[in-house]
Amino acid sequence: MERKTVVIGVTGGVAVYKALDVISRLRKKNIDVHVIMTESAGEFVNPLSFQSLSQNMVVTNMFDEPKHWEIQHISLAKKADLMLIVPATANIIGKVANGIADDMLSTTIMATHAPVVFAPAMNTNMYLNPIVQNNIQKLKDYGYKFIEPESGRLACGDVGAGKLADTELIADKVISMLYPIKDMSGKKVLVTAGPTWSLIDPVRFITNRSSGKMGYAIAEEARDRGAEVTLVSGPTSLKAPFGINTINITTNEEMLNEVLEHFNSQDIVIKAAAVADYKPVEYSQNKIKKASNELVLNFAKDTDILKKLGEIKQNQVLVGFAAESNDLISNAESKLKKKNLDYIVANDITSSDTGFQSSENRVIILTRDGEKLSLEKMSKREVAQKLFDIINDKHKEV
Ligand code: CTP
């Protein structure tokens, strides 16, 4: 296995000592670990402990005499295959989110092209402070990763979210990012994402609140596991993901055509899109003018794309989503049967912190043979991971 380098940023807080355990776990996997400590982290644990465990010099000061001809923060930024900030304080999160680079750690984070993962730990009120939460969201939107803290009793005696995630879990996540499983090489996966638009006239349309995030996360997970991915996407504000054949469509009909064109060659088809069920009976070529006091539009049923796929499917594994506001399980079960699916991912769209616009989701995965797997609230990418873990395990022959 190719040797990888992780640069660990340690910032000040009572959880500093836990970073030692993360380092020891990474070292056991023969990962080259370099540590940058902030000044306040050094107040909690002596940098010597980090030096002994990482077996590399610990960097604390941007103005240390460079060991080589290279500028140190640039050299570590280049060397890193991944940067892990553990524990990450509100201060470092705030600095990076706002473009401040004033010490060795913040300059290195700013200068690296490697993925950066934050494992926050702080007092629960600090963690829940909207400023901190906004900074976290801002960083997530830029592509920085977070390993969410746990809830529990904190050092200050308060109880709540803010406790550093389990060190084994942190190390495992880092290892899986460095050495991703390529268990889908040679497989073809088609994913649909986002909403569709039902066009009324040249300037108006009806749509829904789907953000496309769930479908994009699924497509990206399949890509990272080695699959050849086609993404048929309705209008979203998301960027076309790197390395994925992304086809942009607007209407139900356009999605249907693209999906049908690719369907036969696919191994797995996942329909995460929120497809419009109805469209106006007549599309007005001209902009509808404001005339009478009431405007009545007639809608006709549009194609149920997934149902059609269920009718023509051969060996494809077919996965649908069920967005429900009531009777989650029974509605999902009946969709699974009616559309001849292998799996359905059911989610309750009434919850405000998960679902449509959110980056997180809480879902239940139902299988054709009646199994139900209830997942806790997690990021949409983690939902995608679990979904493929299940599919790949059950459909080894696909
Ligand atoms: N779907 C589809 N074509 C449609 C409607 C839905 O392909 N015209 C797919 C969705 O992509 C999703 C699944 O069917 O994977 C279920 O979608 P959902 O909107 O939850 O259910 P519907 O079948 O539309 O039923 P209802 O709106 O009555 O709940």
Describe the 3D structure:
The mean pLDDT is 93. The chain has 14 helices and 22 strands. It is 35% helix and 24% strand. The chain is an alpha/beta fold and 398 residues long. The strands form six sheets. It has an eight-stranded mixed β-sheet, sandwiched between helices. A six-stranded parallel β-sheet has the order 3-2-1-4-5-6, sandwiched between helices. The radius of gyration is 24 Å and the shape is elongated. The protein starts with a strand and ends with a helix. 40% of the residues are buried. It has two domains: 5-177, Flavin prenyltransferase-like (Rossmann fold), CATH 3.40.50.1950; 188-394, CoaB-like (Rossmann fold, 3-Layer(aba) Sandwich). Helix 13 links the parallel strand 17 and strand 18. Cytidine-5'-triphosphate binds at residues 252, 271, 273, 275, 277, 302-306, 320-323, 335. Cytidine-5'-triphosphate binds next to helix 12 and strand 17.
Uncertain segments: none
Instruction: Return the CATH class of the largest domain.
Output: Alpha Beta
Number of strands: 22
Q: Tell me what portion of residues adopts beta-strand conformation.
A: 15-25%
Count of helical segments?
14
